[in-house]
Design a protein that fits this description.
The chain is an alpha+beta fold and 341 residues long. The chain has eight helices and 15 strands. Strands 2-3-11-8-13-6-5-4 form an eight-stranded mixed β-sheet.
Amino acid sequence: MAPARVQAVAQSGFQSIPSEFVRPVYERPARETFNEFEIPLIDLSSLQVDELREKTVAEIGRASQEWGIFQVVNHGIPDELVQRLQAAGREFFDLPLEEKEPYANLDGVTDDRFEGYGTQLKCTSDGRQGWSDFYFHMVWPPSLIDFNKWPKHPPFYREVTEEYGRQVLGVVDKLLSAFSINLGLEESTVRNALGGENLEMELKINYYPACPQPDMALGVLPHTDMSALTVLKPNDVPGLQILRNNEWVTAKHVPDTLIIHIGDQLQTLSNGRYKSVLHRTLVSKDKVRMSWPVFCIPPLDLVVGPLNQLIDENHPPLFDAMTYREFKQRKKTKAMKQQSS
């Protein structure tokens, strides 16, 4: 049986949120954390300009080390395509609940993958959960895509999402090359360490309904992404927060940008030089927030560890090498233990 959808709860007219969504006092977003903060902004087109390439690579490396997150402008993905992608997501979530439920994933995780329509169930041990619904499916490589798990409505969903996936892959290739160069390695090193042509990408559509008590709830709890890299496209409603100097700050929305998160796998490959960013999501009192993250991940059975070229007697390995499948299982087990303690 599917859990109650947060969207349905939000539309019920309650003036206060049900207890399972109320965060403990120490987790609630303080008023001052709603102040917006501008994270590093990088012109990705400068990578194609010989006299600007070195400077841009350095900017990407510095942001990855000091922040673990940055924004890219002039990324090459047409604005019309982004608008159609967002329209497709909105149209799906605007469907009546009974038309969305056939896409629900009632089988849970299979082969360490989750695809389909669902509700944020990253609960604490006492049953609290995040204020969000979502849709998850693969977008790359083509051999792993199961179109039966994609929405059939709106009719243009498949066309626009396939093209968006191809465009994001181009952005990812540029970034992985820049990371390699910044680390003093051959340009293809990081991409190859993540599976080369077998690199995978998962798309998630996050839907955060308007919340009558936004200062008592969170859309998503604090976490780092298990991916190597996350390419995020939010709508224009602020809500992404990162932990910066032990304080939560809200990322300022900048139109026409993509937000790039450094994930756990890239932190591991770089032997800690790059920072996997701790982040969470706020919700709005009167606006729906949506976001479209694409998670770039290695194949499940690929072993990922600190790159040998970055290890020496002065820089011992900081992380264990293991398959991505094992990493996911370990992280989930650790999270469950922390929640129950």
